[in-house]
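[Solved] Which block belongs to which protein?

Original post:
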Amino acid sequence: MKFRAEIDIMPQKAILDPQGKAVKSGLKNLGIEVEDVRIGKHITILLDAPDKNTAAARIDEACVKLLANQIMETFQYEIFEE
């Protein structure tokens, strides 16, 4: 079966986010007041797996071992059947 994983990786709340601060400042200069901005990554992965649980296990392993630096980032994902 084919699956699509939508992965969001964000800096941990305790970690300074200079990109987010720059965007917040830029928005303020445009007259758009926001409380906070955090910049992260969004990754889409297409994969073949026998079932959704196997697909989720593979995506979790990819996030832990390669995609997210767990010291500085958190991740979450959703798996969709294609």
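(Second protein starts here: sequence line, then its structure tokens.)
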Amino acid sequence: MTHVRFLFLRLVLLTCLASPIPASAGIIVNPDVEVRSISISSLRNIYTLRQILWPNHHPIVVFVLPDDNPVHVAFAKEVLGLYPYRLREVWDRMSFSGMASAPIQVNDENEMRARVRATPGGIGYTSKDMVYDGIKTLRLE
């Protein structure tokens, strides 16, 4: 019986650790973006530059923090399910081939919020799922 309990607890722990949505992550967009929620799959497509238009056919402008920023690392691994270096490889390949422009890198979360707020079609992420003035926060599906 103890062995079964151990396996069950291990399965629960692994499930929690493998959860793709950290409780504190926030996906922010410019207020003109007409969506209220986003799937992890769509978010991954946006950040791997496979989806470049919102459902209303307006361009998506992607903002990211530096590759070594802890918030970026957590977002890439926990939300997108990708290592930051893999994201960088995708961005380099897409931009060098002319298929898409690499995301716009900002220095910190304050700049992320300011740039998303000021850029039609802008999307970014923050370390906390909070309400910010002039920015819409998307619900993860």
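Accepted answer:
You had them paired correctly. Confirming on the second one: Residues 2-18 form the longest helix (17 residues).
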